[in-house]
Design brief:
Layout lengths: L4 H10 L8 H20 L6 H20 L7 H49 L20
Helix pairs in contact: 2-3, 3-4
Family: Belongs to the STARD3 family.
Membrane topology: Multi-pass membrane protein
GO cellular component, one term: late endosome membrane
């Protein structure tokens, strides 16, 4: 940060310029986070379309940003930030597709099997009956 945090924040946020600012990459990450939290945590979506959509938007934006902007002229950070953002988007996609969604499906299947087994067990084994639970007709002699 050259010139202090306040100066840099003012330059990046208040005096936003698409060709030289990194703030839009930060907003892109916030957008991606909110969409994925909404889809997978709040809506409990079990499909890959949300991660595919956010990855496509992120990739397209970052490619356009790199082609149109002047980030590469700003030193090493101009290279690193777009590349890291691009790589993270694809790592998240891979992780969700091949690790998280199959694991959740397995857990859901295990839960359903356990619930089904417990429901059947309750019907098959009513438990031990005590002496007071046997029916005895009124005409029978006590203790017979």
């Amino acid at each position: 940060v050259k010139g202090g945090i306040e100066t840099t924040l003012e330059k990046e946020v208040l005096q936003y310029d698409y060709s030289s600012s990194y703030f839009d990459i930060f907003l892109l990450a916030v957008f991606r986070f909110k969409v994925l939290i909404l889809a997978y945590a709040m809506c409990r979506l079990r499909h890959w379309w949300a991660i595919a959509f956010t990855t496509a938007v992120t990739s397209a934006f970052l490619l356009a940003k790199v082609i149109i902007s002047q980030l590469f002229s700003q030193g090493a950070f101009g290279y690193v930030l777009p590349i890291i953002s691009f790589i993270l988007a694809w790592i998240e996609t891979w992780f969700l597709d091949f690790k998280v969604l199959p694991q959740e499906a397995e857990e859901e299947n295990r839960l359903l099997i356990a619930q089904d087994a417990s429901e059947r067990a309750a019907l098959l084994h009513p438990g031990v009956l005590s002496d007071g639970q046997f029916y005895s007709p009124p005409e029978s002699v006590a203790g017979s």
